[in-house]
Amino acid sequence: MSCAAKRCGVIFRPPSVVLIYEDKDTNKMRRRIMPVRNFSQFSDCGKAAERLKHNVRHKDYLEDVSVAQLERLHTLLRDHLMGISLEQSLAAQRTQDPNEEDLNKLGDEELACRKAQMDELFERNRKRKGDPDFVYDLEVDFPDQAKRETCSWDEEESDDGF
Question: Does the keyword section mention Cytoplasm (predicted)?
Answer without folding.
Answer: yes
